[in-house]
Give the backbone structure.
Amino acid sequence: MSRPTPPTGHAIEVKGLHKSFGDLEVLRGIDFRIEIGEVVCVIGPSGSGKSTLLRCINLLEQPTSGQVLVEGIDITHPDADVDNVRRRIGMVFQSFNLFPHLSVLKNLTIAQEIVLGRDHNQAVRVAKDNLQRVGLLDKITGTPGELSGGQQQRAAIARALSMDPDMMLFDEPTSALDPELVGDVLAVMRSLAKDGMTMMVVTHEMGFAREVADRVVFMDDGLIVEEGPPDQVIDSPREPRTRLFLSKVL
Amino acid sequence: MTPRQRRRLFRGVLYAVLVAAIVAVLLLADWPKVQRAFFQLDIARDMFPEVVTRATWNTIRYTLLAFAIGFVIALALALMKLSPVAPYRWIATAYIELLRGLPALVTLSVFAFGIPIAFGWRFPFGTAGTGSIALAVVSAAYMAETIRAGIEAVPRGQTEAARSLGMSGPQAMTRIILPQAIRIVVPPLTNEIVLLIKDTALLFLIGFAFFEKELYSFGRDIASDTFNSTPFTVIAAMYLVITIPLTQLVAWLERRTKVVR
């Protein structure tokens, strides 16, 4: 599953990242790293820029200035092969974004076949392994519309995993779910983390962050305010803004 | 009067007016004349089977050919309208505005007479080809906007999911976005087929040889030969036999899409 260690040693490195939407500056200078195998949870109030930061890492948003290096490759460079970098980064969205016109199986195989060039049988094998892993092997012939929200999100995780990514980005993966469906999705993510997957998770689930994260990053108003191990950032934050935020969500 | 009585009275008046109008039509119309002008059985009988085997069949053929060609042009125009390259957007917009702004009969004349006379050049498949291509060019302008709206109706997250899996822009468009967009635009495009069927009547302008005549040319020529309007009654019936089931199909497709989405 893992690839040879890239020269720099960082899975993701963000330098001096700024992002504006029109006059609104959403990211105001972010410097940030994720090491290989590390699980980083990004927390913060809505509008703090945490989702934008995540989306800049696979260029779903184009940074206004600054650099984003993925496995040492500067993907903000004009000559960068963005598609090639994206296929190594799995992305999980708040709204799942399964392809509704395709079966669950086809959702998992289509990119393997047309992006990675895997033959159909191999793609199906990989898809089955990953559906098994998220507990949805029995839904393989169904369509996304027949799945519950939690099942859709687990299928979306399996879809991303089927590309054998080096790292996974999660953009508020449980925020659109009914409370009773959150647990299954978090369980899948927990097992991924245990298997050593490099993960960046934008989340409101403090329990998950405390339990699974190697490091927690608190963002507010387009800046990283505080970062460190979860017991430090969540349980004894130094910054007043972090304390204020946590007092509201905990 | 209570409100209830007033409502009753109003409704009574509505029925009375209706009955009076029907009685007036029945009494005042010259029914034998109507029958002679529109419903002469022997004239109608003489039109069969050609009105079905040739004229209706030709109408369907021209419609399907025009739709097929028009759809391809429309898809190209829709993609051009969404292109990041500004001149493509301008060209598509100019095409759409020009051809939607002109009467179809004018466009058809340009194709039937203007271009062949100016360049000494003929469209493939003779007059039938000329007519179908001209109709395709017109309907493409309308279909392009429909298809563009369909593409834009697919949620942004679909493109993002496709791109985040490493698909290229064209791959995401052809494998993920267009299949969903086409599903969305099936009802309006079916409606466009109904419009096309009716527009094939304009092809009389070209002057078809007998075996190429579509419904309207066919009926019109017999009407002028016999000096009688019965042929129009027959072809009107033929049009309705095709169009009414199709409009019902559109209504059913629209209901079904609403349930699914």
DSSP finds eleven helices and no strands in chain B.
